[in-house]
Amino acid sequence: MKIAITGASGKTGYRITEEALKKGIKVKQILRKNSKIKENQKNNEIYRISLDNKYELDKALENIDALIIATGARASLDLTGPAKVDALGVYRQLQSCKRVGVKRVILISSLCTGRLFHPLNLFGLILIWKKIGENFLKNQSFDWTIIRPGGLKENEKVESENIDYTKEDTQFKGSIPRRLVAKCCIDSLSNKQSINKIIEVTSSSENKKVSFKKAMQTI
Ligand SMILES: NC(=O)c1ccc[n+]([C@@H]2O[C@H](COP(=O)([O-])OP(=O)(O)OC[C@H]3O[C@@H](n4cnc5c(N)ncnc54)[C@H](OP(=O)(O)O)[C@@H]3O)[C@@H](O)[C@H]2O)c1
Questions:
Q1: If you take atom 38 of ligand 1, which residue's CA is the nearest one?
Q2: Dihedral-angle region of residue 112 (phi above 0 means left; psi in -120 to 50 means alpha; beta otherwise)
């Protein structure tokens, strides 16, 4: 299997690459022209492109079995970021998937997506634009999965953290290490029952341990 990961320079994106490589999945890392990525986070197939350039994007997404979208507007003073990246950027990636024939797409979104009255919306109404991005994907052209994590954490000590997997609009707070979100993306790739599902994820040492496979049978 070969996949592409957009936002591969991001803090979740590079971990998705690592988790994919551990499973023997080949990876195309898709970055912006100026994205910074550490040497030890680089794979041997890197595409530096602009999401606005159809030709470059199509070239990068050719000959893959699935796309994992880990792009997201970085916090900045530019309040148009979420509209540009989390809605339009997702749209452009999906249009490219249609052109080059990629059907399987996994999108990292967020808990509380679609909510208007939420402090996160102070950054360019991000939760509204993320919902619009999700809606572009929920379409019969795709075998789609949307992963909605809680607040993302950098800690790598995840052995004692168990994931609470639930269906859409059931969790409104909580957090999860990026490493576990990356693992969810890769678990989803090989699990047909995750197709056409929105999966909300947070983690805690107090949760009961449940496998991804088992969770997909109940969501
Ligand atoms: N932070 C949280 O607590 C939280 C909670 C729930 C969900 N999320 C979502 O989870 C996802 C991953 O979050 P993260 O914190 O791991 O991400 P991150 O480290 O901020 O990385 C974001 C990625 O998106 C890329 N990107 C940004 N603007 C772009 C553009 N215009 N064109 C192409 N690529 C662009 C960045 O590229 P550069 O390296 O070039 O900037 C980077 O690779 C995001 O969608 C985020 O919104 C975050």
A1: 35
A2: left
Query: Is there an atom of ligand 1 within 6 Å of 74 CB?
Result: yes
Q: What domains sit in the chain, N to C, each tagged with a CATH number?
A: 2-218 (3.40.50.720)
Q: CB of 181 within 8 A of CB of 149?
A: yes
35 lines ligand 1 (CB under 6 A): yes
Is residue 73 lining ligand 1, measured as CB closer than 6 Å? yes
64, two tokens? 């893959």
DSSP classification of residue 204: E
- Residue with CA nearest ligand 1 atom 35: 71
Beta strands in 51-120 (DSSP E): 66-69, 104-108
| Digit-coded pLDDT (tens) for 53-102 | 999 999 999 999 999 999 999 999 999 999 999 999 999 999 999 999 99
The response to whether residue 85 sits with its C-beta less than 6 Å from ligand 1 reads yes
CA dihedral 68, 119, 180, 8 (to 10 degrees): 40
Which of 216, 191, 190, 192 has the alpha carbon at shortest distance from 201? 216
Q: Are 113 and 134 within 8 A, CB to CB?
A: yes
88-140: pLDDT as tens digits: 999 999 999 999 999 999 999 999 999 999 999 999 999 999 999 999 999 99
